[in-house]
Amino acid sequence: MNRIERLLSSMTLSEKLGQLTMTACGHAVTGPTIAGDSTAAIKSGAIGNLLNLVGAQDVRDMQKLAVEESRLGIPLLIGYDVIHGHRTVFPVPLAEAGLFDPATWTLTAREAAKEAAADGLALTFAPMLDVARDPRWGRIAEGPGEDPWLGMRIAAAKVRGFQGDDLSAADAVAACAKHYCAYGAVMAGREYASVDISERTVLEVHMPPFASAVHAGVACIMPAFTDLAGVPMTANAAMLRDWLRDKLGFDGVIISDYNAIAELIHHGVAADKAAAAALALQAGVDIDMMADAYRNGLPIALQRGLVTIGQIDTSVRRVLKLKENLGLFEDPYRRGARAEDPAELLKRRELAREVAVRSIVMLKNTASTLPLSASVKRLALLGPLADASPEMRGPWWGAAGETGQITVLEGLRDAFPAVEITHAQGVPIAADDVSGMSAALQACEGADAIVLCAGEAATMSGEAASRAHLGLPGVQRSFCELVFARARQLNTPVIVVLFSGRPLVVPWLIEAADAVLAAWFPGSEAGHAIADLIVGRASPSGRTPVSWPRAAGQVPIFFGERPSGRPAAASDHFTSKYLDVANDPLFPFGFGLTYGKFEFGNLRVSPHAVRESQMIEALIDVTNVGAGEAEETVFLFTHDVLASVARPLLELKAFAKIKLAPGARGTVTLSFAAAELRFLGLSLQPVFEFGEIEILVGPCADRAKLLRAVVQLTP
Ligand code: BGC
Questions:
Q1: What Cα–Cα distance (Å) separates residue 30 from each residue in 26, 27, 58, 384?
Q2: What is the SS3 assignment for 666?
Q3: What b-and-e string marks burial along 570-581, b requiring 16 or more CB atoms within 10 Å of the CB?
C-alpha cells in the first residue's frame, strides 16, 4: 500500500475533513493565531491547511504542530496570495501583461516563488487568469487584460515560473489558477455580481487561459465566487467536474475561494452549510477555504445521504498527493530553511526595476517633452502619488511593508542629483482637502518642468474595488486643471505620471498634458523606473494590454468584438455607433509610444495556401525613423472573413519584439500554427473551415495601422 492509501485507511472522518479544510492564520503579538479556532485543531488533525501565514519561523511553528504533535503527522499545506511578488513587489499583473514577454513573466513568478518559499510557503493563489474587458471591475488589475490568447501565454509562463521544474524543490510553490471561470464578466463590472454570458463566450474567451494553465501542469484551481447563468461556480458540476476534470483532464486540487462554500446559501442554491458542502464536494471542490462547511457540514451531509465517504476520500487523496508532490512528507521544513542570499535580493530589486521600466506605457509625448533634457535646473513634483510608498505596491502586495518602495520623489532625486526638486502633494488621493493646493501651484513658479503624479490609491483596484466613475478620485481633477492652467501661463511643460490598476477614463488629462506615462502600479522600484524613463536612461516599451476607453459608457470595450450587421459609418445614421462618442478606444490594445518612431513595410506571409497541420509565417520590415533607440512590439492578428459563425474583427495570434537604433531597420518574424485558426462551429465543436483569412501585422489593435495580407485555408 502506498503512503496515501495507508494514511487514508487509518484516518477518522474528522481527520479526513481536516485535510479538506483551509483556515486563515493571522499574527498575534506572541505569534501566529488561527481565526476562531485554536492550535489544538491542528494537533487533532481537524485543520490540515492554512492561509495567510507568512514568516519562516511562524510557518515552522505551525508545521511542527501538525507534523510532530498530530496523530498522523500529516504536514500542513500553507498558502498565500503571492500575486506579483512577495517581499519584492513587481508591477501589478495587468502592467506586466503589457511587457509581452513570456520569459520575463516566468522569471518574476520564479523570483516571487523563491521569496515565498523562503518564507515557508508552499502554495500561492496565483496566477489570476480572468479575462477582463470592463475596467469598472477592480480585479482587472490582477489579471492578463482583455485577450484570451494573451491570457493563455501568461498562464503557461506563470505556472512554469511558480512551480519550476520540480514541485518538491525548496524554492518551488504550487500555483493555483483562479478564478475559474468568467469572473471578469460580472454584470456592469460590479464585484461579486452575477455572470450571464453565452456558452460560446465562456469557451472562447474565459476558458482558454485555464486550459493553458492545466496544460502547463498547474497544481490547483480556484473557482470564482460568482455564478454562471444561475449556477455558482463553487457548485458548478458542469464546469468543474465535466469541463475541468473530464474534458481538460485536471487532476489537481480545487480550492474554494474564501468562504465561497457558505456563500452558496446567499446565492440561494443551498439551504444550509451541510447542503452547501454537499453541492461543492459533488462539483469537485476538494478544499474548503474559510467556510468551515466541510468540517461542520459534511458529517451531516453524510447522514442525510447527500454525499458518500468515497467522494470525501477522492478529495483527500488529491490533497495528500499534492502534499506529497510538494515534498512535504519528506521534509516539511525544507522551504523555510533556505536563507536568502543578500546578493540574490539585490538582483531581484534590479529585476523589479527593469520590469517596472518595461511595463510603463507612454501614452503621449508632444514635442519630445520626454526624456527631460540635461539642462533642467528646477523641477516641480506635484500630486498625491509623488511620494507614496505604500501605493506603489498596488493591490495584493504580498508581504511587502508600507515603506520600502521607491517613490517618484526618491527616484527623481537619485536621477537628478543636481536638480532642485520642489515637492508638493497638492491634494490627497481621495479626500476633498484643498488646503495644499496653493503651495503646489506656488511650486510651479520657476520650474523648468512639472511632473504631476495623479491616479488611484492601490486599494481602489483589486478585490472589492469596482468603480462606476473611472476618472480621478477626490478633488484631483480640479487640482490638475489648476496646475495645467498655471503651467500654460508659465509656458512650462507638464508630464503626467498616472497610477492606476485599470485604464482610467481621463481624456481631458491626456489632452492637457505634454507627456503622459501610464505607470499602473510599478512595485518596489517604482520611482527608479519612472525616473529611468523621464531622464531617458531607458526608452519606454510597455504596451497597454487593454483597450483604453474614451468614456465609461463604452465599456465593455475590446478589440476582439464581432462585426455588426450595420458597421459604423459616419454618413449613415442607422449604423452601430454612439451619438456622443466615437466607437474606438482612446488608445487601442497594444498601444505604447517609445523614444523611437517605427515604420512598417513589406509584409510577406507564407504559405499562401495553408493546411491545418502547417505553420503560417509572416515577415515584416520595421524601421526606426525616430531619434532614439527603442524597442517595438509587433502584433499579428487574424480575421476569418467568412465563416459559419461570425468571427471577431481581430484575433491575436502572435507577437514579437525588436530593438532598433535610430535609422536602423530589421525584419521581424511571427509565426503560428494554422490549427490555431480552428474555432467553435455552430454546434460548439472545433472546426477548421476553409477559405480566406486576413493576416494583419503592426504596432497595435488598430486596423488602420496594420499591414494586411491574405492566406487561404485549404484541405
Ligand atoms: C480572493 C482570492 C484570494 C483569497 C485568499 C479571496 O477573497 O477572491 O483571490 O486568493 O481571497 O486570500
A1: 11, 8, 10, 36
A2: strand
A3: eeeeeeebeeee
Is pTM beyond 0.90 here?
Answer: yes
pLDDT confidence of residue 339: 78
**For residues 190 and 136, is the Cβ–Cβ distance under 8 A?**
yes
Residues of the chain with CATH 3.40.50.1700: 352-554
Do 162 and 126 contact (CB within 8 A), yes or no?
Answer: yes
CATH superfamily of this structure's domain 79-325:
Glycoside hydrolase, family 3, N-terminal domain (3.20.20.300)
What are the start-end ranges of the E strands in 373-500?
Answer: 378-382, 420-424, 449-455, 494-499
* Cα 371 from Cα 416, distance rounded (Å): 13
Collapsing DSSP states into helix, strand and coil, what is residue 484?
helix
Q: Whose CA is nearest to atom 5 of ligand 1?
A: 258
Q: Is 257 in the pocket of ligand 1 (CB under 6 A)?
A: yes
125 lines ligand 1 (CB under 6 A): yes
Task: Return the half-sphere exposure (C-beta side, CA atoms, 13 A cut-off) of residue 83.
Answer: 28
Homologous superfamily of the 598-713 domain (CATH) = Immunoglobulins (2.60.40.10)
Catalytic residue at 257? Answer: yes
Nine-digit cell at 514? 505634454
DSSP per-residue letters across 505-521: --HHHHHH-SEEEE---
Per-residue pLDDT at 707: 98
Mutate to test the pocket of ligand 1, among 23, 50, 162, 258 (most ligand atoms within 8 A of CB): 258
295-330: b (≥16 Cβ within 10 Å) or e: bbbbbbbbeeebbeeebbeebbbbbbbbbbbbbbbe
Cα 309 to averaged position of ligand 1 atoms, centre (Å): 28
Q: At which residue does the C-alpha cell 484570451 appear?
A: 148
Per residue in 81-96, pLDDT tens?
A: 999 999 999 999 999 9
The 10s digit of each residue's pLDDT in 62-88 is: 999 999 999 999 999 999 999 999 999
Segments of the chain with pLDDT less than 70: 27-38
Which candidate in 257, 532, 640, 702 is catalytic? 257
Compute the distance between CA of residue 536 and CA of residue 522 in angstroms, rounded to an integer: 18
CATH 2.60.40.10 in the chain is located at: 598-713
Strands (E), 265-401: 288-289, 361-365, 378-382
Residues of the chain within CATH 3.20.20.300 domain(s) are 79-325
CA atoms of 708 and 695, how far apart (whole Å): 6
DSSP state of 90: P
Q: Which element (helix H / strand E) includes 60?
A: helix 56-69
Question: From residue 109, how far is each of 175, 257, 311, 326, 350 by CA, in Å?
Answer: 10, 21, 34, 17, 15
Superfamily of domain 352-554: Glycoside hydrolase family 3 C-terminal domain (3.40.50.1700)
Question: How far is residue 654's CA from residue 316's CA, in Å, rounded to a whole number?
Answer: 41
273 CB within 6 A, ligand 1: no
Residue of 49, 51, 81, 82 to mutate, ligand 1, most atoms within 8 A of C-beta: 81
**In terms of Cα–Cα distance, which of 633, 618, 620, 605 is closest to 666?**
620
**Whole-angstrom Cα distance, residue 597 to residue 368?**
11
DSSP-assigned letters across all residues of 535-585: HTSS------SS-B-SSGGG-S--TTPPPPSS---TT-SSSS--SSS-SS-
The residue type of 107 is: L
Whether the CB of 178 sits within 6 Å of ligand 1: yes
Per-residue pLDDT tens over the stretch 161-176: 999 999 999 999 999 9
C-beta of 130 in contact with ligand 1 (< 6 A) = no
